[in-house]
Each structure stands twice: as C-alpha cells, then as structure tokens.
UniProtKB/TrEMBL annotation:
This is Methyltransferase domain-containing protein. Transmembrane segments: none annotated. It comes from Exophiala bonariae. Residues 1-36 are annotated as: Disordered. Gene3D superfamilies: Vaccinia Virus protein VP39. GO terms for molecular function: methyltransferase activity.
C-alpha cells in the first residue's frame, strides 16, 4: 500500500490531498468563516443492444424509480435524482486523486484497445475514458439504460448483468476492465474477478474503485454517532440477507490475487464527511462528500429496509433524519476510505 500525504496547508496541490487509511486528517479548529465561504463557492449513450419494452418498464415504489431488467438484483433506484448522485460521486472520486479517473499504470507498456466499465451507471466514467483514449473501444454495461444519448464514437453501452456468465468471444477480450461502487450489488466477488481475468488479454489490467458501507473516525477510533452506527449495522445485515455482503472490502485484494492477477496493488484515500479537516481542498472535498452522503442515505436504505427488513417508508425516513443530523456533526471527524485495487493478468 502506498502512502500519500494529506495536505495540511493551503499551498499543497490537489494531488496530495488524499492519504492512506493510517494517517489522520488534521481537524480545523477555526472553521466557521472559511467553511461558509467555501460552501457558497461549492454549493452520450449508443446502445448496441436493442432495448425491449421490458427493460424500460421501470418499477415505481415509495416515490423512487427502480430498474426493470433482472428486477431486484440491484436495490438502488435509477431515477434522475439517483443519476445526479452518481455523477457527483464521480467528481468526488476525481477530486480525491487529483483529477484522474483511475490509478492503474495504464500508460506503462500497455496498448489499450478495448475497455470494459462494469456497472457503469450514468456512463460518466465510461464517456470520460472514451474522450481521453479515442483510440480505444470503450464499453459500459449496466442493468439500467440511463446513459446519455450523445457520446464519443468509440463508446458503446449494453444492458447486461455482470453477475451472469460473460459471453465475449476471444477476439473481443479487453485490455482494461474497470468497476466502481459495486459493493452491495455483487453476490460472488471471486466469480466476478475470475470472469474478468478470463476476459482480459495477457497483460491486461482489472481495477476496482470502492467505498465501504461503514464510516470511520479520526477521533481516536471513537465514533460518536450511535444512530448512524445502528443504521449501518442494519444496512449491512440487510445486504447479507439478500446474499450481497458489503463488509468485504478488505478482502478484494486477496480475491484478485486468488483469481491469478499479479502485481496487485491497493491504495486507500480518505474522504472527509464535512469541512472539518484542514486545507481548502479538503474542505471542498468534505462539503461535496457530506452532500453526497446525505443524498445517499435514502437510495441505499429505502428498498432494502422496506422489502427485506420489514420497515415502513415512514419508519425509514425517521431513521434517516437522525442519521443526517449525526452526519453534520463536525466534532465526529467522520470519513469514509476510498479503495483503489488493481492487478495485472500474466503475459
């Protein structure tokens, strides 16, 4: 695991604003005026597969819209509100690593001609990569056809379930496979990594970008957020009940090695929740991530708690109101680690 230092002054560039999990962020003891100023300043899809009406026959429940293809395999919504949240997370991940969209060494002796983005969501990462690598064919797959209509000519989207058997012929293997924010939607990570391994060309790279479904604190390991802790325990229990365990992020590196990947690397960055850490860029990142976390509470919870755990929608919203109050507590020094794990297929 590499160590990157977090900024402790206003002059350190954005490339150094994220750190490995062991190094604490520095709380800002005098944050009110600066935070207010920062808060004011921060505050195309081509479908190769035909879209049958069943794919677009969305489910509506408790005011949110959910995917139709293989209904129930993914319990987060796919409506415009959710799409905005996904796009915000894309920008947060870029902020955390200095504007990049990946950490794997793609520029080192690897000719990238075919790329797969698993679970591409709105397709923003897919499109960005296609713009940056015009010589590569970039394919995004997702359960929902929610990607935009206008995209680079080298970008294609398919409605597909990455947990099913992959059917790409040998001539269409990939040089780089990417996945982000898949925790809680994958039943068998070993199988997923094996499928990726078998569908990479020799020397190809698999990269996973993930955040755990738990929060952590730089306050001596103590997290003074009992409502949030209880909510997260229930959230993870619900995901385990449907066969999609989420507290396994620390195992991904080992799973990748078991699948046969070499030179497996893991980097961990900290995403502060709120503007409590020193440094303007940390504050901007924290403000964006606080908004994202507040907006994530409902989509991660509503269907899971009502369909699986037996809560009413009213009970869910009452739980989330208490959670959001704790999220905004600057004294809790909360953060969520952002993992980048990648490995290379031999050859």
């Amino acid at each position: 695991m590499s160590s990157l230092m977090i900024e402790t002054s206003e002059d350190i560039p954005i490339e150094q604003t994220s750190v490995t999990q062991g190094a604490p962020l520095v709380p800002d003891s005098d944050a009110s005026d600066t935070d207010s100023a920062i808060g004011e300043s921060v505050a195309g899809s081509f479908y190769s597969a035909s879209l049958a009406s069943s794919v677009l026959n969305y489910t509506y429940e408790n005011g949110r819209r959910y995917h139709a293809y293989r209904e129930g395999n993914y319990l987060l919504p796919n409506d415009e509100k959710e799409q905005e949240r996904l796009d915000m997370m894309h920008h947060i991940c870029r902020m955390a690593i200095g504007g990049a969209i990946f950490r794997a060494p793609l520029h080192e002796s690897l000719r990238v001609q075919r790329v797969l983005d698993m679970g591409c969501g709105t397709g923003l990462w897919t499109i960005t990569f296609a713009d940056d690598w015009p010589e590569a064919v970039v394919i995004g797959t997702d359960l929902s056809p929610i990607q935009p209509s206008w995209v680079p000519p080298n970008c294609k989207f398919y409605v597909d379930d990455i947990e099913r058997e992959w059917t790409y012929p040998p001539a269409e293997r990939f040089d780089y496979i990417h996945g982000r924010a898949l925790l809680g939607s994958i039943s068998d990570w070993r199988k997923l990594f094996s499928n990726a391994f078998n569908n990479l060309n020799p020397g190809g790279i698999l990269e996973i970008q993930e955040r755990p479904t738990d929060v952590q604190s730089d306050d001596g390991g103590k997290i003074h957020v009992p409502h949030m802790a209880d909510w997260l325990d229930k959230l993870n229990d619900g995901l385990s009940a449907i066969g999609k365990p989420s507290r396994i992020i620390h195992l991904l590196k080992g799973y990748m090695e078991e699948a046969g990947f070499l030179d497996v690397r893991e980097e961990i960055y900290k995403l502060p929740i709120g503007p409590w850490a020193k440094g303007r860029r940390n504050k901007e990142l924290g403000l964006f991530f606080l908004a994202h976390c507040a907006n994530s509470a409902e989509p991660y919870t509503l269907a899971l708690f009502t369909r699986v755990l037996g809560y009413s929608a009213e009970e869910v919203h009452a739980i989330l109101e208490r959670v959001k109050i704790e999220l905004r507590n600057p004294r809790a020094h909360l953060y969520i680690p952002l993992y980048f794990v990648w490995g290379r297929k031999p050859g």
